[in-house]
Amino acid sequence: MNIKTAYEKKGASLEIEKVAEVRHLKKSFGDQIVLRDLNLDLFDRENLVILGRSGTGKSVLIKCMVGLLKPDSGEINILGYDVPRLNSEELDELRQQVGFSFQGSALYDSMTVRENLEFPLKRNRAIYDRHELDTLVMNALQDVGLEKAVNQTPAELSGGMKKRVGIARTLILKPKIMLYDEPTAGLDPVTSGEINDLIMEVRDKYSTASIIITHDISCAQHTSDRIIALFGGYNKFEGTFDELKQREDPELKEFFNY
Length: 258
Hints:
- By secondary structure, the protein is an alpha/beta fold.
- The chain has two domains: 16-97 and 179-258, Rossmann fold (3-Layer(aba) Sandwich); 109-174, no CATH class.
- The protein has helices spanning 3-9, 58-65, 88-95, 113-125, 130-143, 159-171, 189-206, 217-223, 241-245, 250-256, and strands spanning 18-29, 32-43, 47-51, 73-78, 81-82, 98-101, 177-181, 209-214, 226-231, 234-239.
- Strands 6-7-8-3-9-10 form a six-stranded mixed β-sheet, with helices on both faces. Strands 2-1-4-5 form a four-stranded antiparallel β-sheet, with helices on one face.
- Strand 1 (18-29) and strand 2 (32-43) form a beta hairpin.
- Helix 4 packs across helix 5 (130-143) and helix 4 runs parallel beside helix 6.
């Protein structure tokens, strides 16, 4: 499927820039082959959903894309960076432009929400001015609807609130690409819907391209411009939500018969 077709249906601009490209990606752990010949493109301001069962390599894919895992073979180009060949300094540069929202939110339990959000500003941008820190932290929390939680600790937050704070901590560096790892995992349907809405709001406000890793068909339906269905370690199916729903393949039917 041509990506421009999906954007035409949504009435968006046809001038689309490619921001990420993966070609023939392979990754194994011992004798277990997780990814085999996986290919994908990600375009500017696109929400690309990677749909698949648990254990099919979805999270391995995005960890390879930011250099947290090294692939066995294949090419990964993100924002012009040849990822497998980057040194540690170049990886730090890339990771400041690619936000990673972890499945478990990855907040520091010993820090307040404020301190969690200040951490990347101090570490990556060397920002220590109190007024500037306060402004950036409160703006990020306001964007996820949690400014009142600024002085709370992660232990005082619900699962959905932790997800929001994790997204806010990622957004505070103004990334060009967002990677969401199972953003609705473990959440009730109402909270999942709120996170889906937030993903769309982030794209619209920050003009990010996003890869959304999920096995939640409702998340895929509400957040995707395009879906890649991952089976057997490679991109077996690709298209819009409606296009994949209409296919008769039994593997896809397991997701869409909900």
